[in-house]
């Protein structure tokens, strides 16, 4: 295959990706506008016409911005790839060092820095204009910069550990490097599952054990009923960043815990919080965590195997004016172009996670012998987060890891009858 053929294949896929995402966003905007005058029945009791109008304005603003983002990132990607910038940076760095590991770290660092700088204004706009306008942003510029510094330091530490190990495997284990890299990568991910709740998440938020009282008793009683060994229910100070609320399940083994945002506790009743917790227990009880891990055990080696084939694929480098077969070149190019080859799979992985959400909902209903508390919690969460209540079906199939609330409520109600 020569450079022209490879460039044509890549640009075709990139165009398909762009058109697909662009069309989906337009469909979503259309679906929102079409339903503008009618609040869906299930939300009528909980959402006022003013609030509904506000949720529409919020969705539209975000979708219009995402179109801008799409166009911006298309132009940026094509410019970086075809302008020869990558080759230029590469030759400067190769003049500085011939050590493959240092070269790899520097090259990935410089490219990530460039991409990060271009993304910064977009992220600022999203936080301080859109989220601010709708009352969600609670961050000051100073706190935002503080977060950014923490994130950079954390990415540097994790990035250096992961990349150095990866480069050593690529260098020392010949054709089987993909296998060694996979074993390392999976082990590292398992380790992160253990250290994330205890060491990484607390860098950004404060986690306090849920205070004794009616809520704690109710939640613990339910955990016992579900035969769920709870290692802790924690409250996270999510309100210091954003008015959005959520709950999640984190860790494995003895680091396993349930995290509730303080905003969630403020807005939901004890019964509703029990509904939410029952859903989270459902993920554990139905083995979703294990299933996702098994999927990682399959997808990581597969991805590294494909990478190992790509390492010696000449046009990948020469098309973009880079030295062929280098480790740093492989990783940076994959970072830039792989989404065009893999974005077709995202509906598939969302399909699985939506199936799990329905299962966890059904579990919660069976455990509690009623579904009203969870339904009320879902409706309230939609209202408070100004969620899009009428997303386009294709859009949600492609982008949503959770089913639209309207479908979850229907599912919960169907089960009742
Ligand atoms: Zn869930």
TrEMBL record:
Signal peptide limits: none
Subcellular location per the Swiss-Prot or TrEMBL entry: Endoplasmic reticulum membrane
UniProt GO MF annotations: metal ion binding; metalloendopeptidase activity
Entry membrane topology: Multi-pass membrane protein
Keywords: Endoplasmic reticulum, Hydrolase, Membrane, Metal-binding, Metalloprotease, Protease, Transmembrane, Transmembrane helix, Zinc
Names of the cofactor(s): Zn(2+)
UniProt family annotation: Belongs to the peptidase M48 family.
This protein's name: M48 family peptidase
Organism: Thiospirochaeta perfilievii
């Amino acid at each position: 295959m020569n450079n022209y053929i490879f460039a044509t294949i890549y640009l075709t896929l990139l165009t398909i990706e762009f058109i697909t995402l662009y069309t989906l966003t337009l469909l979503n905007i259309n679906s929102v506008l079409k339903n503008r005058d009618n609040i869906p029945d299930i939300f009528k009791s909980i959402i006022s016409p003013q609030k509904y109008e506000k949720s529409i304005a919020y969705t539209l603003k975000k979708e219009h911005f995402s179109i801008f983002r799409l166009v911006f990132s298309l132009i940026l990607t094509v410019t970086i790839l075809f302008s020869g910038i990558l080759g230029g940076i590469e030759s400067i760095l190769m003049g500085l060092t011939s050590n493959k590991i240092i070269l790899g770290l520097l090259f990935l660092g410089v490219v990530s820095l460039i991409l990060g700088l271009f993304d910064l204004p977009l992220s600022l706009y999203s936080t301080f204009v859109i989220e601010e306008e709708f009352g969600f942003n609670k961050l000051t510029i100073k706190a935002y910069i503080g977060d950014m510094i923490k994130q950079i330091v954390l990415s540097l530490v994790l990035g250096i550990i992961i990349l150095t190990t990866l480069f050593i495997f690529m260098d020392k284990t010949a054709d089987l490097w993909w296998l060694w890299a996979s074993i390392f990568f999976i082990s590292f991910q398992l380790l992160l599952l253990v250290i994330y709740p205890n060491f990484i998440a607390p860098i950004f938020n404060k986690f306090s054990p849920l205070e004794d009282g009616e809520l704690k008793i109710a939640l613990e009683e339910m955990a016992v009923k579900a035969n769920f060994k709870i290692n802790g229910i924690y409250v996270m100070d999510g309100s210091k960043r954003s008015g959005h609320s959520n709950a999640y399940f984190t860790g494995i083994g003895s680091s396993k815990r349930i995290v509730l945002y303080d905003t969630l506790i403020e807005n939901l009743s004890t019964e509703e919080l029990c509904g939410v917790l029952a859903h989270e227990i459902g993920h554990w009880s139905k083995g979703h965590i294990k299933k996702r891990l098994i999927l990682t055990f399959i997808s990581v080696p597969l991805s590294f195997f494909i990478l190992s084939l790509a390492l010696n694929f000449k046009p990948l480098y020469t098309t973009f004016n880079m030295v062929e077969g280098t480790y740093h070149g492989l990783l940076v190019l994959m970072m830039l172009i792989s989404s065009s080859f893999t974005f077709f799979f995202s509906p598939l992985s969302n399909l699985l996670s939506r199936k799990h959400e329905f299962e966890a909902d059904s579990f919660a209903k069976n455990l509690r012998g009623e579904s009203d508390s969870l339904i009320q919690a879902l409706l309230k969460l939609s209202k408070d987060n100004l969620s899009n209540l009428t997303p386009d079906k294709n859009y949600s199939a492609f982008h949503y890891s959770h089913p639209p609330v309207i479908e979850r409520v229907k599912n919960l109600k169907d089960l009742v009858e």
